[in-house]
Amino acid sequence: MEVEEALRQRIEGMEQRISNLERLVRVSLMLNSTLSLEPLLETIIQVITELTDTEDCSILLFDEKTGELRFRAARRMRREELEHISVPLDNSIAGWIFRENKPLLIRDAQRDDRFYQAVDEKLNFRTRSIIGVPLQARGQVIGVLEAINKRGGKELSWEDVNIMTTLAAQAAIAIENARLMEELQKAYDKLHELDRLKSDFISIAAHELRTPLSLILGYASFLRTSATGQASEQLDIVLQSAMRLNSLIGDMVNLRHIQTGEVQLELETFSLNDLVRSCIQEFLSLASAKQQTMGVNLPSPPLMIEADRQKLHLVLGNLLSNAVKFTPAGGRIEVLVCEHDEKAWVCVRDTGIGIPRKEWERVFDRFYQVEPSLSRRYEGMGLGLSIAKGMVELHGGRIWVESEVGKGSNFIFHLPLSQTPHSGEEP
Predict the structure, then answer these.
(1) What phi and psi, each to the nearest 5 degrees, are found at residue 223?
(2) Cβ distance 178 to 61 under 8 Å?
(3) How far apart are CA 276 and CA 299, in angstroms?
(4) Residue 340's closest CA among 260, 267, 410, 412?
(5) Which is it for strands 293-297 and 332-340: parallel, antiparallel or unpaired?
(6) How far apart are CA 211 and CA 249, in angstroms?
(7) How far apart, in whole angstroms, are the C-alpha atoms of residue 369 and residue 373?
(8) Among candidates 282, 359, 358, which has minimal Cα distance to 323?
(9) What sign does the dihedral 156-80-193-397 (CA atoms) show?
(10) Backbone angles phi, psi at 61, to 5 degrees
(11) 141 CB burial (10 A radius; 0-12, 13-18, 19+)
(12) How far apart are the first and last CA of the chain?
């Protein structure tokens, strides 16, 4: 009978171990799929108290600012109670486990010199026995996992230590991942808030600057009509500077509207050929001043598109402005328009300085400049291409660049063609 009883106990013990292992496997899978820290800590606490059959379980994480261990979760304590409780690394069981990076089983905690009485006193609790194991992630101890007081008067065992050690290995990695995700979310929220503040600043600054700028432009234009000699030249400089500032303000407002989704398209059907001719006409004098030649290649019959004329004028204006700016004297700028794959394609080609291949995508970023900021030869805030990209995409199109350093750039965008048929040839 004694042999049978011993065999039965061994079988029951093995069945319990198998059950615990199965539970640990399921818990490990669950821990690896959880990236929210608080629910993760609660799950770990619940599983440990069930598997070890203990009265309480707690998780302490190392606080680098204070150099202490702080409770982050416990079965019998609310989160607001935990926030004010810390455990020193010296003269505490948890501190010893953390420093030595070893598990510890103490069956009579009150007689152990390392036992930190202050926690029991604050919580009106009595710790009789305790198991603690280190939480280690990526080769570094980040905290301590504790189980306290076996239920039913039983003693904690090394089998309980093994269970906690096994789970702690998975739990520590999951906790660290959740903490990193939490920090990433906080950083993202902060960036989002900074972006909102920046957009608000741009809106306020543009509003406050436009009124005095309009007065400056008005008075300077009025004085220019009657000024002669040196005064006329100085007023020309004032007008040019004021117009450039007005253009920058317009760029900032347009960019903010694109980012916040406030752009409203006023759609109409019109000839893309006419729009291209109009834009080129505006830049002919500027190109001539740099001894540049401008050419255009338009299809016949003209391509009709349904779009916001003013916003596409801004797209072409920004592309032509860049072409003139970055093309040296004697260079050539050409605009080609064609139909391909039921879309209207526009290419603005120049023989300018070119763009390195690794920068092709980045040139459309806000405030991006190919040149180093401390050695820039060309004016501008780096907003034109970002605005052009936003406007093209609002029309359901796409824009990109192909370029070679020293040989020039080719900015290409396409837009959907109008479904309205067009009759007649262009003159």
Answers:
(1) -65, -30
(2) no
(3) 11
(4) 412
(5) parallel
(6) 12
(7) 7
(8) 282
(9) positive
(10) -115, 145
(11) middle
(12) 113
Comparing C-alpha atoms, which of 405, 413, 407 is closest to residue 358?
A: 405
Sign of the Cα torsion 34, 38, 44, 47 reads: negative
Three-state DSSP at 291 gives: coil
Cis omega (within 30 of 0) on the bond before 134? no
Largest Cα span, the chain: 125
Sequence letter at residue 92: S
- The span from the CA of 133 to the CA of 117, in Å, is 19
Dist CA 109 CA 92 (whole Å): 11
d(CA 340, CA 338): 7
Are the C-beta atoms of 45 and 75 separated by less than 8 Å?
yes
List the structure tokens of 257.
């509207």
CA 228, chain centre distance (Å): 55
| CB-based contacts of 162, cutoff 8 Å, min separation 6 | none
Distance CA 122, CA 330 (A): 83
Q: What is the dihedral of CA 259, 261, 262, 263, to 10 degrees?
A: 90
- Per-residue pLDDT for the chain (427 aa), expressed as one digit of tens each? 566 666 666 666 565 565 655 555 555 655 555 667 777 788 888 888 888 889 989 888 999 889 999 888 887 766 667 777 889 999 899 999 999 999 999 999 999 999 998 888 887 888 999 999 999 888 889 999 999 999 888 889 888 888 888 888 777 877 887 778 888 888 888 888 877 776 677 667 666 666 676 777 776 777 767 777 777 777 666 766 666 666 666 666 666 666 666 677 889 999 999 999 999 998 888 888 889 999 999 998 999 999 989 889 889 988 998 899 899 999 999 999 999 888 999 999 999 999 998 888 888 887 666 554 434 455 555 678 888 898 899 889 999 999 999 899 999 999 988 765 554 444 3
Q: CA nearest 382: which of 208, 231, 252, 217?
A: 252
The gap from C-alpha 153 to its chain's centroid, in whole angstroms, comes to 53
Cα-atom radius of gyration of the chain, to the nearest Å?
36
Q: Residue 331 — φ and ψ, nearest 5°?
A: -80, 180
Pairing of strands 408-416, 86-87: unpaired
DSSP track, 34-66: ---HHHHHHHHHHHHHHHHTEEEEEEEEEETTT
